[in-house]
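Lab notebook, bench 4. The sequencing result for the construct came back, and we need a structural model before the next group meeting so we can plan mutations. Quick request posted to the team channel:

Model the 3D structure of this chain.
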Amino acid sequence: DVQLQAFGGGLVQPGGNLKLSCLASGFSFENYAMTWVRQAPGKLRESLAGITNDGKTSYADSVKGRFTSARDNAKSTLYLQMNSLKPEDTAVYYCARYPVGFITSGYDYRGQGTQVTVSS
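Done. Here's the predicted structure in token form:
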């Protein structure tokens, strides 16, 4: 079974940094593109940071220049480094898998999320 488990969330002050990790299992991680998705109360789900199987990245305008996605295929782990956090970044963050090695219109699996709260 495909399993995706995000962790590393927490409470951080505005302007602070946080790094999320997502451990993948049940499939050949190195063959698939991945993305980070967030869901805030009352807002549409937002795909933030896609990364191809070989490490090319693409970011939503809302996080470009502040968030960085990376992957370690040997560890089947996806990362999201979040810098200069803002209160509007508060959301549940999930990692998700695309069905192919490149970024496409929709993902096929989304894991359990981790809460990120940005507040003073």
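The mean pLDDT is 96.
Will bring this to the meeting.
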